User: What shape does this take?
Amino acid sequence: MSTDLSSRTPAARGRRFWSWLPTGADRRVRVAGWISFITELMIIGTGGAVRLTGSGLGCEWPLCAPDSLIPVAGMGLHSYIEFGNRMMTGVVGLAALAVLILVLRLRKTRRDLWWLAVVVILAVLAQAVVGGITVLTGLNAGIVGFHFLASLALVATTAAFVVRAYTEPGPRALVVPRGHATLVWVTAGMTVLTLIVGVVTTASGPHSGDDSVVRHLLNPDIMAHVHSAPGYALLALTLAVVAWASAARLATLRWGIVLLAVLVVQIPVGIYQARDGLPALAVGVHMMLAGMAAAAMTVLVMRVSAPVPPAAAAAGSAAPVAAKVE
Assistant: This one.
């Protein structure tokens, strides 16, 4: 009886839970990573819905109403849309926390996964605070833009976690020619520039997040043309990456095609929204595609290198393991 009781103590439960935690990047870690990535992508959609329906000030902060965490009768639809996005923040936080817990025992053997998980959970907490500051500052354009860029960075970080969860640990080496790797890195830089200019362009447009907030920033028509320049440059660079990878059968081919496919959809949507007065639905689709582009670009960058075989690592060699797609 005493043995049975001792197995039910908090310490015993803690030991059982610790022994249950993964000691490698198993299916639990990968599934949790995918869930975290998907929720980060989804919150771009719910955040966009808040802004594009004018619901940005639908709730107060930190409570939704003076004496209530949730919307109360009479507050209207905007409050429920804003509160729904706050609930989604909780889902994102729980997903990030689950990933962090699952990699607790991997802190030394998979430091890459551990630190990516730490960055995500800290960034999610910071994003919640930034969201509150956004409301308190009356939807300041700079804060709103930073909030969106941070969301894109989180999508990229969770995508990196998923990629690494399927990759063996250890030293890495290029698996493509250095010139091709440089081209991919330049394309990544152009992706970042395109996203930043896109955020400034959107901030200059009519969708401030609330009908009472009127923006007097840059001319949105001019900014649409400015935004198109890095957008087309990104398309040209991506085409070059795909052409080179296809000709040489490089490991970057698959994800170069994925990025290209996203851009082939995203650019026409951008042209349509610029020519038709920035309709809310088109802007929302454009925002989601931006998240997908950030994720695809992240995976593409990570495909330029791969783990060095143990024998080569032991010999101090940094030779690529494979330079071609299978």
Remarks:
- The first strand starts at residue 172 and ends at 174.
- The radius of gyration is 23 Å.
- Residues 321-326 have pLDDT under 50 and may be disordered.
- Residues 172-326 form one domain.
